[in-house]
Design a protein that fits this description.
Strand order of the largest sheet: 1-6-3-4
Order of helices and strands: EEHEEHEE
Oligomer: single chain
Structural class: alpha+beta
Largest sheet: 4 strands, antiparallel
Strand content: 35-45%
Helix content: 10-25%
Distance between the termini: 5 Å
Radius of gyration: 13 Å
């Protein structure tokens, strides 16, 4: 079972900080890594995503999480799309992995 959600917008790492949360238009669910499943690894990967004005991820900074889960989380986030805005924003994203 994989749960994912967007937490809150943050001014950190953003060229022009946002006061509001940008709506996610396309959310790709990360693949649960086979190694993590075989080892029964669960946990949360915390990331800050700088989202370009067109809604595409510009950069991703991992703030925490099991290294076995990080690559899958980053790969999925590169395919997310947010609603357009007049400037780049930073979005705090937590993706929770649970093998159940």
């Amino acid at each position: 079972m994989l749960l994912c959600g967007s937490l809150h917008a943050t001014a950190q790492d953003s060229p022009q900080p946002s006061e509001t949360i940008r709506k996610v238009v396309t959310r790709i669910t990360p693949q649960y890594p086979p190694l993590a499943r075989s080892m029964n690894i669960k946990g949360t990967v915390k990331m800050i995503v700088v989202v370009a004005p067109n809604g595409s991820p510009k950069s991703i900074v991992v703030r925490g999480g099991n290294p076995v889960l990080v690559q899958s989380a980053e790969k999925a986030l590169h395919n997310w799309k947010w609603e357009p805005a007049s400037h780049a924003t930073s979005e705090a994203i937590d993706l929770r992995f649970d093998p159940r």
